[in-house]
Amino acid sequence: MTTVSALVTDPSGGVLLVRAPDGGRWALPSGPVLPGAAPRESCVRCVTAATGLVPKLGAPLVTGWYGDGRAGARATRLVFDGGRISASAVPRVRGLRAVPPEVRFVPPAELPSVAGAAEASVAEAALAARAGGRTAYLEDGRPPRVLELMTTYGIVPWVHSGSAWVWHPEPVPTEVPIRQSWVWVFAPDGRVVLYVDTAGHIGLPGGTLEPFEHRDPVAAAVREVREETQISITPPRYLGYLLDHPPGGGPVARVRMAAAITAVGPVAPDPATGTVHRRLLVPPQLIAEVCGWGPGADAQTAAAIRAGRALGVAEPDPEAPVTELPAGGVSGQPASI
After folding, report:
1. Which residues of the chain are modeled with pLDDT < 70?
2. Does domain 161-336 bear CATH number 3.90.79.10?
3. pTM
4. Close Cβ partners of 132 (under 8 Å, ≥ 6 residues apart)
């Protein structure tokens, strides 16, 4: 089922809410998509039914996906931009002078107390989307954390070949070349360092082994973490490797390590690329999704969290906030991060 709603605001910024005929909850003017009608046409009709006026609707501000009250059933909700109602049209809105009113304009700050938290979150997302010139996507009333992270830090969508790599917890076979070494770098609170480059790509710090490192992923890990993020770490612990079969070549291993932060310096250009990376602290449970590794990364994530416990960091909180390490570095002990 698809439901359509409209965000209409008055000259002072109040949001148009409608109360169900039975005197129930307040909500944005809403209704089902009618048989044979497009969603936008159905939304025009539901606003007209609520106000007595025909709106000139814009594009959707919110696309939502939520439970519709039936066991296991899901539904879609589109919230269109109904624009701002003119001062002359406000007195014409049907029901505005009724007692008790069936239609009212509510200041944004009062939405939770009038419409409830769930409906207020949808209206607030629509207001923010209108102000930002974009469309919001919600699941059960809120944007997925990964999308919030991507929007906040300018992380771009992409399709990563790493989702095809296969995790192996055992040592790398001697006949398989070690191509790269990446590190789960733990902060004292259990969050993990991710870098963001100027193109909006994100990943664990690490990189390609140099010839002088002679198949030593530990040496490469320490060097690459320092060069990319200006972070010093404890001796890395081996977690396992990802087996990659690149097109046109033989299999290679991409090693994963774990380590704890010992010092955080000021950001500086990576000597290999000249890029200055942003450094985020992210709950480990979010990393596979935000990096685009796919569900096959669950075993690697579990191994990293176990290694973090062995390193003495705190148990990671999946709901911990994502924050950025200061560009100027962190003075004193890592515990101050």
Report:
1. 21-23, 68-72, 94-101
2. yes
3. 0.84
4. none
